[in-house]
Every structure is written in C-alpha cells, then in structure tokens.
Amino acid sequence: DEYVADAIDGLSKQYIRKKKGGDQEVVASKGGEKFSDVFLTSSRGVSAGRVFCPKYRSLKASQKKLFWSRILAALSYSETMWDRKSRFREPGMRDVETGRQTYSEGLMQVSYADRLYYGCEKIDWRKDKSRAATSDAKTIFDARANLECGVRILGAQILKVGSITYNKSYWADLRSNRPGHKRFKKSWANQKKSGDIAFCF
Fold first, then answer.
1. Rounded to an integer, what is the distance from CA 13 to the centroid of its chain?
2. Residue 15: φ, ψ to 5°
3. What pLDDT, on the 0 to 100 scale, is given for residue 20?
4. In the structure, what pLDDT confidence band is assigned to residue 166 with cuts at 50, 70 and 90?
5. Is pLDDT above 80 for 14?
6. At residue 47, does pLDDT exceed 60?
7. What are phi and psi of 27, to 5 degrees?
C-alpha cells in the first residue's frame, strides 16, 4: 500500500500528455495532465476506477490510493503469485533497451524497455546486465521500483483509453478476452474480502 501511494504522490510533479498517434509521453513541466491526477481526479481515472469500485468518484484521495494498491496487489498475485523474482519469456519480442530477448520480470512483470517507454528510471539495465538473471541485486526485482513502474504503466493506460481491462492492456490478465482474466477476477475477489475497501461498495 505504501509503495503504491508513494508512487502516485511522486507523480504529482510530473505531467503526462498524449502524443500524435495515441501514445503518451511523460514530461517534467506543465504541458499535459498532472500524472497523479490521472488516478485521483481525471474523468478517465473515475471511469476506470468505477468498474471495480462503484463509489470511486466520491472517495477521498487516500481511499483512492488504497483502492489502486489493492488492484495492483490483485494483478500482481494473478500474474506472479507475488513472486518478486518471477520471469516470463515473451516469445518473438526483442527488448529495445537490452537488445536481447524480452522478459517480463518482477511483481508487476515489467521489462527494461519500460524505462524508455514509461520513465521507469529505477529499473536500470546498465546495472543489471552484469548480474545473473535471477540475482536478488537486480534493480528490476526491487519491489518498490517494480511497483512504481507498474503505477506509471497503469496511469498511461488509463489516460489513453479510460480503462484497465481493455483488450490491448499491457498485462494479459487484465484483458477481458484472455483466459487469465478469470484468474485476475478471482484475485480481485479475494482482495475485496479483506474488508478494508468496503468504502467502494
């Protein structure tokens, strides 16, 4: 919860805007939408949140952050069973940052290319390339860095389409047309049972 809340707060000084063609870019100064507001106040953030949290619009900022932390927890469990050293080989994909086969890694199954695409600066191939593939020391396995990268990716997706479950989602388990989506829904149901997001319903 703390990592996700910190990640959203940390984006309050950055802005994101759409580029021609529908992609997004993060910028350090004004000229777009404040990245943290994509989650907390934007109409697209509300639209994305209400699918899983019907009362999302009326929630306090702290409650919205907790909700998103639970969404990411459900997604991470669905994708990796909370294994921070999980690795998945992406067939036929080449990582533009490493120049090698793409692997999705860590709690949020991100890749080194996301440093370029989403500004995940704490995930650093220059430091990791000399380390063993499953080394604890790899930056991509750092829980905070990996979750922060996931928050950035999710925010960019919300800005683009106002949804986290559309059929081209970054994460396969969020795609409503994929078998893994049932696994995510089951994981989300378990998060709801915790009771600490009762304010959503």
1. 18
2. -125, 150
3. 52
4. confident
5. no
6. yes
7. -125, 150
Which tokens hold the place of 105?
């890694």
List the beta strands (DSSP E) in 19-163: 24-27, 33-34, 87-94, 101-105
Q: Is-contact 97 117, C-beta < 8 A?
A: no
Bridge-partner residues for 110, per DSSP? 105
Angle between helices 2-10 and 143-161 (to 10 degrees): 60
What's this model's pTM, rounded to 2 decimal places?
A: 0.87
Q: Can you state the angle between helices 61-80 and 180-192, rounded to 10 degrees?
A: 140
Q: Phi first, then psi: what are they for 123, rounded to 5°? A: -95, 110
Q: Is 168 exposed, middle or buried, given 0-12, 13-18 or 19+ CB atoms closer than 10 A?
A: exposed
Number of H helices, E strands in the chain: 8, 5
Residues in contact with 166: Cβ distance below 8 Å, sequence separation at least 6, in sequence order: 157, 175, 176
Q: Which residues pair with 27 in a beta bridge?
A: 15
pLDDT by residue (tens digit) across 50-84?
999 999 999 999 999 999 999 999 999 999 999 99
Write down the pLDDT at residue 178: 86
DSSP states of 29-54 as a string? SSSSEEHHHHHHT-HHHHHHHHTT-T
| Distance, CA of 201 to CA of 198 (rounded, Å) | 6
Q: What is the mean pLDDT of the chain?
A: 87
Residues 56/65, Cβ–Cβ less than 8 Å: no
Dist CA 113 CA 129 (whole Å): 13
